[in-house]
Write a structure and sequence with these properties.
- The protein has 483 residues and is of the alpha/beta class.
- The chain has 2 domains: 273 residues, 3-Layer(aba) Sandwich (Rossmann fold); 179 residues, Rossmann fold (3-Layer(aba) Sandwich).
- It has 20 helices and 13 strands.
- The strands form 2 sheets. A 7-stranded parallel beta sheet has the order 3-2-1-4-5-6-7. It has a 6-stranded parallel beta sheet with strand order 10-9-8-11-12-13, sandwiched between helices.
- Helix 14 links the parallel strand 9 and strand 10.
- Helix 3 packs parallel to helix 9.
- The radius of gyration is 22 Å and the shape is globular.
- It starts with 8 loop residues before the first strand and ends with a helix.
- About 3% of the residues have low confidence.
């Protein structure tokens, strides 16, 4: 039985994908710094990695509760994270498998309530929206975490509701109305690859499960963004839920909160721990472009060849994270880029790379984590959206924030199968971002946003104050519930 002096207890339930999990692990640390005990719900193969994310000093404030990952047809045993998936055919069985986590999750929450350790909230990824519904049924405030920006969440929310209309749009035809939002840039069908592809696994999953995404039962919405970046879109997002009590809390960028017990210099002055990568960066005498497309993007061999040739032609030093284990560079390419090009085929600490002072640009797929990490470090982005809400993030970066540039596909006359951008477009984009006036202006703007981001998480910053308000609101709700 919890006593009156016990710290408030929060449940965090991340979706089993790297990009979804990492910001929620950041959130666990931030809550811990503020005196909240955190339990992270996870599965056996994910538990070790999650536990390794936390130092020993968190052992009394952050723990994991492991529930079994179900065995389902079409998914090999032990595949408990999207990074394990080897084909798109496994994605839908994986998503369906997560629904079977409902019973053990509910049993765990009931045990907490029965033993007097009722959590002040359960923060759940939107792919696990059913967990918010379960939490709310037990009088535990369920909070949805979308892991996207405020604007892209609002647009995606509205488009999902009106997807039949969106599918009728012809290529290039503009989407005229996004409910409750004056969109700051034009929208076309290509901005919604999930809805354009009738066989998209994520879309099928949400259609199969109707409205049980937690939107009708959630207590609030947590946004990994900050007021100065996207505050103008918050009200429109809140209105999407159709209930006055639902509030969207901008508490990011979660990666920037410092540990109050340490005199940390990262990321404020660009210091990174010494490694082969940082040592290579230390040796560079001009700005380096960092190239990465996330952990879930598939890049064809033909497209990889075009990237390689484009980076070679651009002439700037580069770090390129290559996910494919089978791709081999074109003949003599490695010799030509020796000394100014570093290819990495393993997981990297992207934040530390972006924090290095020599990084001058990021060729990115524009996943929201990558956008936040890049802009928080003052690094402009050369946008290459691939899927999900990434086209919306790219437009936000280029057209609203003015902190990046878009590549020009019209520079390539020949388009091979599996090639989105040819070497000419890639080379031209890198040269523009790294060496031309438009790139200089994007870099200047990115540095301004980086300063705003750091200020937002300081003690009196907008995100820090909102996080304190959120915790206090949940504590007050818990007191009322138990009185």
């Amino acid at each position: 039985m919890a006593n009156a002096n016990s710290p408030p207890h929060a449940i965090i339930f991340p979706f089993m994908a790297q990009g979804h999990t990492i910001p929620l692990l950041d959130l666990a640390k931030v809550l811990s710094f503020r005196g909240v005990k955190v339990t992270i719900i996870t599965t056996p193969s994910n538990a070790k990695q999650i536990s390794s994310h936390f130092a020993t000093k968190f052992s009394s404030t952050i723990s994991t509760h492991v529930i079994p990952f179900p065995v389902v047809d079409g998914l090999p045993l032990g595949y408990e994270n999207t990074k394990d998936l080897t084909s798109d055919d496994q994605r839908l069985p994986f998503l369906r498998a997560t629904l079977k986590l409902k019973q053990p999750f509910e049993s765990y929450l009931r045990d907490l309530v029965d033993t007097g350790d009722r959590p002040i909230c359960a923060i759940c990824d939107f792919f696990l929206g059913w967990a918010v519904t379960v939490s709310s049924s037990l009088n535990i405030p369920g909070i949805l975490f979308y892991g996207m920006g405020v604007l892209s969440t609002k647009i995606s929310f509205s488009v999902f509701i009106n997807q039949e209309y969106v599918r009728t749009l012809m290529n290039g035809e503009k989407l005229e109305n996004v409910s409750g939002l004056a969109c700051p840039f034009p929208l076309i069908l290509d901005d919604f690859p999930v809805f354009k592809d009738i066989n998209n696994p994520s879309k099928k999953f949400f259609q199969e499960n109707g409205g049980d995404g937690g939107t009708t039962t959630c207590w609030g919405v947590l946004c990994n963004s900050f007021e100065e970046l996207e505050g103008e879109f918050v009200t429109a997002l809140e209105e999407s839920f159709g209930r006055s009590r639902v509030k969207a809390w901008c508490v990011g960028p979660l990666l920037l909160y410092d540990d109050p017990e340490e005199n940390k210099t990262f990321p404020k002055d660009g210091n990174v721990s010494k490694s082969s990568i940082s040592s290579w960066l230390d040796e560079q005498h001009e700005d380096v472009i960092y190239v990465s497309f996330g952990t879930q993007s598939y890049i064809s061999k033909s497209q990889m060849d075009e990237i390689a040739q484009g980076l070679d032609s651009a002439g700037h030093p580069f770090i390129w994270v290559v996910r494919s284990s089978s791709w081999t560079p074109p003949a003599e390419w490695e010799e030509r880029v020796k000394g100014r090009g570093l290819v990495i085929r393993e997981w990297v600490d992207q934040r530390s790379i972006l924090a290095h002072l020599v990084i001058g640009g990021f060729l990115s797929h524009c996943g929201w984590n990558s956008v936040l990490e890049s802009l928080s470090m003052g690094v402009p982005i050369l946008t290459w959206p691939i899927g999900a809400e990434q086209p919306l993030n790219a437009k936000l970066v280029v057209h609203v924030l003015k902190a990046g540039l878009a590549m020009d596909s019209t520079l390539d006359e020949v388009r091979e199968e599996g090639v989105v951008y040819g070497c000419n477009a890639i080379s031209s984009g890198v040269k523009e971002l790294m060496g031309e006036e438009s790139g200089r202006l994007a870099r200047k703007r990115a540095k301004e946003i980086g300063l705003m981001a750091r200020n937002a998480v300081e003690k009196d910053g907008s995100s820090s104050k909102k996080l304190d308000h959120l915790i206090n609101s949940l504590k007050e709700h818990s007191v009322r519930l138990n009185s």
